[in-house]
Design goal:
CATH topology of the largest domain: D-Maltodextrin-Binding Protein, domain 2
CATH class of the largest domain: Alpha Beta
CATH architecture of the largest domain: 3-Layer(aba) Sandwich
Shape: flat
CATH superfamily of the largest domain: Periplasmic binding protein-like II
Oligomer: single chain
Number of helices: 10
Number of domains: 3
Length: 301
């Protein structure tokens, strides 16, 4: 008999293969670690095979899990898209030949946005797409003036007519010059950075960067005040030049060079969230289908 498998268990399995860490995967799935463990055990019981080899220090895919993964990903993608399209059809929501204006901040442009555009265009080939990569303040102004229909952005504050749906979060990683003795360390805690040249990104209007600063100071790290970076690109440049270590969201792995390495820090749990916004009064029919596709693709990230 064919095993009985539900979408929730499949999604849990696929996301756990990305993190190979029950705690981090459970947080991304917005569930407790015991609940995630229960979902994985349920899937393994239904399949009759062990998908993960677990120990107190590591989680690894078994040969059976590695074999199951690509076909499970393909099946989940098709099933979730079928569910989405049926809901859009039931609500008489569809995209046509209209122009859809999309704005995004740089992190989304390097991660989620290309995948959303590809999937949406494949399903709605007649929709014309105009894409702009802008900073947060410019994106908000464009949304407010109706010059952009949807925006990939951080959660806005005091955004009158905007709806916002969170999509994914990037954890913060240490950006370490290869010349640093910390570059080869497999495990790191904030106290390991004491005595090293460290600077933080000066974007304190974003709560997670304020938290990183506070945690670094509390850990006894003497921050290098001679280095000032007000943008992610500037911080990467300083680290690439070998001038110091900093902490940035993991999306930068798409753009960094070989002069630095990225390392997780065990007690640095801050994350930077990205979501999608749209105007509630938008008359463009492709807006809501695009938003739904963005959420669909973000779940399969």
């Amino acid at each position: 008999m064919s095993p009985s498998i539900d979408l929730g268990s499949m999604r849990c399995f696929i996301l756990l293969t990305q993190d190979l860490h029950f705690g981090r995967a459970a947080k991304r799935l917005n569930m407790t670690q015991p609940t995630l463990s229960q979902q994985i055990r349920k899937l393994e019981a239904n399949l009759g095979v062990q998908l993960f080899a677990r120990s107190t220090r590591s989680v690894e895919l078994t040969p059976a899990g590695a074999t199951f993964l690509p076909l499970a990903q393909e099946a989940l993608i098709k099933l979730e898209e079928a569910v989405l399209l049926s809901k859009l059809a039931a609500g008489n929501l569809s995209a046509g030949g209209e122009l859809l204006k999309i704005s995004a901040i740089e992190p989304a442009a390097h991660t989620l946005l290309p995948r959303v555009l590809a999937r949406f265009r494949k399903r709605f080939p007649d929709t014309r797409l105009e894409v702009s990569i802008v900073d947060s303040s410019e994106l908000l102004r464009a949304m407010d003036r109706g010059e952009s229909h949807v925006g990939f952005m951080r959660r806005p504050t005091n955004a009158n007519l905007l709806q916002f749906r969170p999509l994914y979060s990037d954890r913060l990683l240490a950006v370490i010059p290869k010349s640093s003795p910390l570059a080869n360390r497999a495990e790191l805690r904030l106290t390991d950075f004491v005595g090293h040249r460290v600077f933080t990104l000066n974007r304190f209007e974003i709560s997670c960067f304020r938290s990183v600063y506070d945690k670094a100071v509390a850990a006894g790290i003497e921050l290098d005040t001679s280095l000032h970076a007000s943008s992610t690109a500037a911080a990467i440049t300083l680290a690439t030049a070998g001038l110091g270590i900093t902490f940035l969201p993991e999306w930068i792995e798409k753009v960094i060079g070989s002069e630095v390495v990225l390392r997780a820090v065990e007690d640095l749990t801050e994350e930077l969230s990205i979501g999608i916004s749209w105007r509630t009064d938008s008359p463009v029919p492709g807006v809501l289908p695009f938003v739904e596709y963005a959420e669909l693709v973000s779940r399969q990230r």
